[in-house]
Amino acid sequence: MAAKIRWSDNAREDYKNVVDYLLLEWNEEIALRFIEVVEHKIQHIKAHPFTGLRSRGDPEIRSVSITKHNRLYYKITKNLLEIVNIFDTRRHPDKNIYG
Questions:
Q1: Calpha distance 65→79 (Å, rounded)
Q2: What local confidence, expressed as pLDDT, does residue 1 receive?
Q3: Which segments in the chain show pLDDT lower than 70?
Q4: What is the tally of structural domains in the chain?
Q5: What is the secondary structure of 42-83 as a DSSP string?
Q6: Rounded to whole angstroms, how far apart are CA atoms 85 and 71?
Q7: Which DSSP letter does residue 1 get?
Q8: Is the distance from CB of 35 to CB of 75 less than 8 angstroms?
Q9: Range of the domain at 66
Q10: Is 96 a domain residue?
Q11: Which CATH number fits the domain that encloses residue 10?
């Protein structure tokens, strides 16, 4: 089980962009629900780090679905869960470096 969580700069920016979009185009309730789902997924990954699908681009990277439009990509080391990317699945797959 990873003891610490670290967000890459890229993942932090992706997360912020999704939340900002939800606040702008939907409402605060939807944005808060997204935040709760992400937090729940991260806690689940901490408890069960190898449940995510392995990335074709990098076998050390795994991913889980957050919503039908977003996947969270992460890397596990002995004491660290690193969130490396949040990818909008509606984008062209070639733009996903971990896909």
A1: 23
A2: 66
A3: 1-2
A4: 1
A5: HHHHHHSTT-SEEPSS-TTEEEEEEETTEEEEEEE-SSEEEE
A6: 8
A7: -
A8: no
A9: 4-90
A10: no
A11: 3.30.2310.20
Give the Cβ contact number of residue 66 at 10 Å.
20
- Kindly tell me the burial class for residue 3, based on how many C-beta atoms sit within 10 Å of its own C-beta (0-12, 13-18, 19 or more): exposed
CA distance to 23, 52, 67, 96, per residue, from 33 (Å): 11, 21, 11, 25
Contact 76, 50 (CB under 8 A): yes
Q: How far is CA 11 from the centre of its chain?
A: 7
Domain assignment present for 51: yes
DSSP character at residue 97: T
Write out the two tokens for 67.
């919503």
